Every structure is written in C-alpha cells, then in structure tokens.
Amino acid sequence: MQEDQGKRLLLAIAISFAFLFVYQTYFGPAIQRPEESEQTTTESAEDTSSVVELEVLTPPVQPALSNTQATSPIDRVTLAASEEKVITVQTPLFKAVLTNRGGVLKSFRLLKFLEDRKDLESKVEMVRDPVENGLPLGAEFVDAGGPLGFRGFLFTTDGESLRLEAGESKSITFRYRTPEGLEMIKSFTFSGDSYVIDTNVRLANRGSETVGGKMTISWIPGLGPKVGEKDTRSLATGRYGYKGAMVLEGNKTRKIKSKKLQGTTVLEVLPEWIATMDLYFTAVLMPANGIDGALARKHEDGRVEVALFSKFRLKPGTAKDMEVSAYVGPKDMATLKAVGPSLAKVIDLGMFGFIAKPLLDMLNFFYRYVGNYGVAIIILTILIKIVFIPFSTASHRSMKKMASLQPQINALRDRFKKDKEKLNKEIMALYSVNKVNPAGGCIPILVQIPVFFALYRALLGAIELRHAPFVLWIIDLSAKDPLYITPIVMGGTMFLQQKMTPMSGDPKQAQIMLFMPIVFTAMFLNLPSGLVLYWTVNNILTIGHQYYLNKTTRIATPEPESEKKKGKGKGKKRANKE
Predict the structure, then answer these.
(1) Are residues 115 and 100 in contact, defined by beta-carbon separation less than 8 angstroms?
(2) CA atoms within 13 A on the CB side of 63
(3) Residue 172 and which of 10, 196, 343, 420 are 20 to 30 A apart at CA?
(4) What domains can you pick out in the chain, each with its CATH number?
C-alpha cells in the first residue's frame, strides 16, 4: 500500500513538472538573457531611425526580473511615498536640497559665492524662481499618447541627508512605479570636491505590454533673469555678457538665443554638452550613456530650459538607462578645465578667445603672488605695454612725420580745393618724396587691437573679479565705480593723450577726435571698475611713453617744394656762370 502511494506521489510530481514545463515553454512570457539582447528601431513621429540596445532588467537596487516577477500583480501596483521627504547634501562647495516629489533638486546653493557681498548668508542659488511643476534634473517619459508623468509624483527613497568631505562620494536613489508597471529609478551621485552631479535614470517596464516613447532629463528653468527683469546678479554688467542657452557641437559653441527661439527646438546632432547660463554661473548637461539628442525649450518668462533625451521601445522585462553628468557651478576657467577641457568653452571670450584665455591665466598667476586682483590688473597692463613698446614707437614716429608735412598739405588743399583728384595726387607725391607711409601710424596700432579687445572681454565677465576688492572705495571690481572717480580719471587721461598725439590730416577730423574722451567716459560710467582700471592704467602708460618720445624724437622739417625748385634753379645758374 505504501509502495502504491509512493508511486502515485512520484507520478503526481512528474505530471506537475511536465505541466510547468509545457506552460513556461508555450504559454509563459519570454525570458530575456544578456546574450539575447536585441536592437529595436524607435517608432516615433519625430525619429524612426534611432536604434538602441535594450538591456536585461537588472536594477542595481533590486534583484533581476524573472518571468513571474515581470507579470506578477505585486509588481504592477503603484510604488509611491505617502508624504514629501526632503534630503540635504552638503559639501565644502555647495548645499543641495532634494525632494522626493519628482526626485529633483529643490535648491542648490554655492557656498563660496554670495549674492550680496555685504550679506554673508546670501549664498548664490542656482535654482532661481522655479516654474510650476518644474525643477532641475527632472525626468519625464512621454509616449505617443502624451506625458505619463513622474513630475510632481512622490518617489520612495531610503536616502538620508549627507555631509561629504573632499574625496568622499555617495549616492541617493528615488523610485516610483505606475499602476501599469512602468518604473523610474533615479540615482544622484555627489562628490565632496566637485560641482558635478552624476545622474542615472532607469526606466523599467515591469508590465506585460511593450511601451515606447521619449525620456528627457532637463535643467528647468534656465538661468538668467526673466524677460523684463533686471539681472541683479550681474551687477553693473547686467546689460553685458551672454545669458541663455549654449551648446558645443563638434568643436564649436553655438548660442541658442531666447529671442529667436519659438517653443521647443530639437538639435540636429547630439552635442558634447548643452548649458544654460548667466554671466558668472552655469548649469551644464553632459551626455554620458544612453543619450540620443538634446533640446531647448523656451518658457513664457523668456528663460530657456535645456534637456537631453533618449528614444526607445521597452519590451516587458527590459529597462533603459540614461546617464548624464551635470556641472552646476561657477564659470571659473580652472574649475571647468578640471572637469573636462571642452567645458571651458562655456566661458564666451569672443573671436579673440585664444588670446583672452592666456591673459586670464596670467591675471590669476599674478594674483597668487600679490593677493589683489586690482594690483594684478595693473601688473598685467604694464607687461602688455612693455611688449608693444616697439609698435607704439613706430606708430608715434610715423605720425610725427605726418604732422611735419601738415603745413604743406594745408597749402595743397588751398591750391587744389576745386580739384580733389589733383589734390590727392599731389599729397601722395609729397608723401613719396619725403618717404612717409600714410598708414605707418595705423598698422602698429592694428597689431595691438586684438590683444586690447581680448583683455577687455576677459575682464568683462571674469568671475575672479566678482566681489573682489581693490582699494578704498572700490570694493568690487566687477561692479561700477560707486563714486565714478575712475571713469572720470580715465576720460581725463584719454583727453591728455589726444592732445599729446601728433595731429595730421583734416583739422576738422582732429577736432572731432577730441570729443572721443567724452564719449568714452559716458560709456565707461557703468562698466566694471576692473575694466576701467585697466583702460586708465593703459592711458597713463601711453602718456608717459608719448612724453618720452616727444622729448627724444627729432623729425627734420621737410623743405617746401618751392624752396627745392629755387635751390635747383640757383644751382643751374652757378653752373652756367662757371
């Protein structure tokens, strides 16, 4: 009897295993293995040619999905928190505040920079005036039917507030799952000595239906002031410098200006980075893995949101990772280069940037020794002036030769005032006889213009000068002179320089040139005092050099043509007499 019962038990077990085998083989969901990963073409109205490789779902925070897990009811219920939780991450560089409502940054304060230099608690805030349901590093999934959400949803998290020192690195993870089984897992990794936030977003399909669409990671809203608002962060230079979105495509930067942007613009190629910025600070999104493209979106307030996105289709039991590195910090050349050489291109130094960058490096070099950026500007200006002394000397001598010919040129103007063509020929003949190049005074100056303009651009938006004191009343080299003393001194030195410069050409033109100091003074009243200091010191050095040249340079007064002809005539008469 017991033997029959044993046989029946074995038979029952065999039948059960057979039933499970047949069910799993012919009726159960397919098991995905790493070696069976396939490439699927994204079927989207925007792009039907993008091909991505879907990985087997193996989230780092939980076991890999099995056949039963992929379709079990417990994995298709909503996974959400019941209340909002705020997590703080503090390092020597910044204090970040994250919220599980959307799994985003709620605040990001730069601890080494102040909004108001008089208020030591006013740390620079990189999350400025957020828009409704929009905060930085938010992720959103959109399918053919529209947004599925995740913005504003309460993610679960077991993360706690962190305090990191230099060299330390830790992560915080958020999770949310929809009733359909679509799960988002967001991880943020912070370092104690870097402004970079490594962001990983995994979208997992735990349901039984294939889903497809686009997922974005964005910095919203963009930096910079709203349309019509004054940019108080840029102080006196609020009207200057670029503030908006920028991308690096290939090796060239391109500005995405708010005025020209309508709605959402999808970039044609995946850039090396896409950024939003004001004059001194920037938030840069750098694609690391699983990114297909970038976009810029203009909001009603005029600010430009930047984002990276990925297009894909997810079969049941599969997942897709998006990895993005976000730099959120100052537009400091050394700090940016430490993250990546190409990131330094965020600092817009204009067409002469290849000159401006080494000048800015030299400025920081001098600062390390003197400890005052105002003194460093003076030293750098003196050095540049010394380098260009040969050019300035050549220009001065040429202009002095031109000035010595002015009486004869004026006589020619009176003689041929009704015949402009004849006048020009006579003037050129006069130059030729006296070996004077009319462009000789301009060419040496043209050689110096790129350097002067490059230094101008470098000082205009240099974060090194922000809140940097000089002496006495100048407590911020990035702000205008509160007493307007340096612009007035600059105008005075420019006027004296004009008076000492040998005048040549049209007298009316020379009189007009004397009005230039007034125009420049008006222009420089609201420019950064560090820039005005550079221009003033350069004028003083030029005045000293011109004074020396006026004392030491002797230009022989050319003999008038009439006297030359008389001399030749007398010589002929003497020859005849002899």
Answers:
(1) no
(2) 7
(3) 343
(4) 76-339 (2.70.98.90), 354-552 (no CATH)
